[in-house]
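Quick one, tokens below. Sequence please?
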């Protein structure tokens, strides 16, 4: 598929979405926005503005208080508990704190994500190995997460998130604990994935990172999204 064609398919759609926590504070109010397949979005804004909440609404970690969120053409509020695992299989999730299982090797952390979808152990481990090589951790297959740096752990988390070949990758402050070098290394993995067709929504408050890449920036402000268009970034090479 050509990128132009992919861009016109809505992968996530917010319609009149309101989100209120029990305190009554409106995180979102009448939010309307469509995310298109194949695109790369930065979701930005200061701490507390609602980045994590917006991602949660997409993967059904939260339900809307009002309005509708559709993902892959389906109203997420109609996804039953028994359907949630298969619904989420088409999404990869990456969090700031990685959420790896400390007593499992890097290889098993990644393989497990495929194993639980019913793929046999040998195939799961082979594909996990391939992905760990891709993220540059081919020499650490048997390392346990506590033996690795934050950047290495985050690369395991990416391998784990993409092993089910998700259509959509949601990343919540994935570079939050990383130095600049590791952050850009991680970004190059996200870019590669995006070029292969995975849509990406990456929440960050790191404005330097956002400015270095030519992707659409969605700024959250007072419960709404303000989109600034993707720009052709003449500064970009300075970061490599
Ligand atoms: N479980 C919760 N209960 C009540 N309020 C919450 C909860 N989670 C987040 N909030 C509030 O919702 C707002 C948005 O939070 P969040 O989505 O975590 O923002 P961000 O990720 O941009 O820092 C904040 O005001 C926060 O205090
Ligand atoms: Mg957050």
């Amino acid at each position: 598929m050509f990128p132009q064609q992919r861009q016109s398919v809505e992968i996530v759609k917010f319609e009149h979405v309101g989100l209120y926590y029990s305190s009554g504070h409106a995180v979102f109010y009448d939010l309307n926005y469509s995310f298109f397949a194949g695109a790369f979005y930065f979701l930005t804004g200061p701490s507390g503005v609602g980045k994590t909440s917006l991602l949660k609404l997409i993967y059904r970690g939260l339900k809307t208080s009002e309005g509708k969120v559709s993902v892959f053409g389906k109203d997420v509020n109609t996804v039953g508990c028994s359907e949630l695992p298969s619904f989420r299989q088409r999404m990869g999730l990456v969090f700031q704190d990685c959420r790896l299982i400390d007593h499992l090797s890097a290889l098993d952390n990644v393989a497990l994500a495929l194993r639980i979808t019913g793929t046999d152990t040998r195939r799961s481990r082979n594909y996990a190995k391939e992905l760990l090589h891709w993220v540059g951790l081919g020499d650490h297959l048997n390392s346990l997460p506590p033996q690795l740096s934050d950047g290495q752990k985050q690369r395991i988390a990416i391998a784990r998130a993409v092993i089910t070949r998700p259509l959509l990758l949601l990343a919540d402050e994935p570079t939050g604990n990383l130095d600049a070098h590791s952050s850009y290394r991680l970004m190059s993995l996200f870019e590669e994935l995006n070029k292969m067709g995975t849509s990406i929504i990456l929440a960050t408050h790191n404005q330097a990172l956002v400015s270095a890449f030519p992707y659409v920036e969605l700024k959250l402000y007072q419960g709404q999204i303000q989109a600034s268009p993707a720009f052709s970034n003449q500064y970009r090479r300075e970061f490599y």
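Residues 1-6, 232-240 have pLDDT under 50 and may be disordered. The beta strands are 10-20, 26-36, 40-44, 66-71, 74-75, 91-95, 168-172, 199-203, 216-221, 224-228.
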